[in-house]
C-alpha cells in the first residue's frame, strides 16, 4: 500500500521517497505541517490475526515544501461492486460545533465492507467512501468539544453517539438518537460527529506502531465479540460454545476467557483459525457441524 501526495508538478503523483531524494520534501517522524502522509513503506504492516480485519499502519510523514492542493485527500472509494479505488476526494472539514477531524494512523477492512464490494448490499447509485474503523490523531475540533483536544490519539468506534441520550445510558450506543455512521473511515482524514460522546482517548505514552493494530481491534471487532459474550451471560465458571471462527467469533473466544469462562469450545473447520482460537483460550475445537458437532 502506498499513500501518496498529489503535488502541482509535471507528474500527477510523486512518491514520497523519490520526492525526498530529489529535495522536494523533507521526511521526519516528529514534524507536522499542512501535508502529512505515509511514505512508501506506510502499508508494510498487515495484521490478519482476526480474519477479515487487516490493519494499515502509516510509519512515516512527509512535509511538503512546494505548492500543494490542501483541499483534497486520499480515500478508498467503492465505485461499484468489485470496483474499488484509492481516489482524491474533497477534504473533510468541521460542519457542526460537536465535530472533530481525525487524521488516520491506522484503519482496516471489516467483513461487512465486503457485502457492498460483492454486490450484496443492494443497489449502489454512485461512488461512496467506505470503512468504519479507525485509530488516529485529533487534528481540529468544533467549538463545543471539550473532552478531546488537538493532538490526542483516539480510537474511533464503528458508529458515533452522543453518550447522553436514554439509549446510550442503557448501553445501546448503536441506537443513539443522535448517532449514526461515518462517511468512510478508510481515508486520510475523517469527520467524527458527536466527538465528545464518541472518541476514546489513548494515553500518548502507550502509542507506538506495535500497539496500533491492537488499538484498532477495539474500534469494532473485539467489542462485538465481547458484547456477544456479555449478552450470552458468560460469567466466572461458565461453559461456552462459540459458533463461527471469523473475526468476531475469535474475539468471542477471547472475551469469554477474559470474563472467566472455565471451558470454551470453538466450532471451527479452518486449521489456521483453530490455532488462533486455542491461542485465545479455547479449551476444545470442534470441526464437525450439525448433529455431529452437537454430540
What features would you highlight for this structure?
9 helices; 25% strand; three-stranded antiparallel beta sheet; alpha+beta; disordered N terminus; six-stranded antiparallel beta sheet; 295 residues
What does this structure look like?
Residues 1-14 and 24-69 have low confidence and may be disordered. The strands form five sheets. Strands 4, 8, 10, 11, 12 and 13 form a six-stranded antiparallel sheet that branches. This protein has helices at residues 16-21, 114-117, 166-169, 195-198, 212-217, 221-231, 247-258, 271-279, 290-294; strands spanning 5-6, 13-14, 25-27, 55-57, 62-64, 72-80, 83-90, 100-108, 128-129, 134-141, 153-156, 189-192, 200-202, 239-243, 263-267, 284-286. The protein is an alpha+beta fold. It starts with a strand and ends with a helix. It is built from nine helices and 16 strands. Helix 6 packs across helix 7. 39% of the residues are buried.
Strand content: 15-25%
Task: Calculate the mean pLDDT score and round it.
Answer: 80
Low-confidence stretches: 1-14, 24-69
Quaternary state reads single chain
SSE topology string: EEHEEEEEEHEEEHEHEHHEHEHEH
| Number of continuous helical runs | 9
Q: How many distinct beta strands?
A: 16
Q: Which outline best applies?
A: globular
Gyration radius (Cα, Å) is 21 Å
Report on the biggest sheet: 6 strands, antiparallel
Which structural category fits the helices and strands?
alpha+beta
Intertermini distance = 46 Å
Helix content: 10-25%
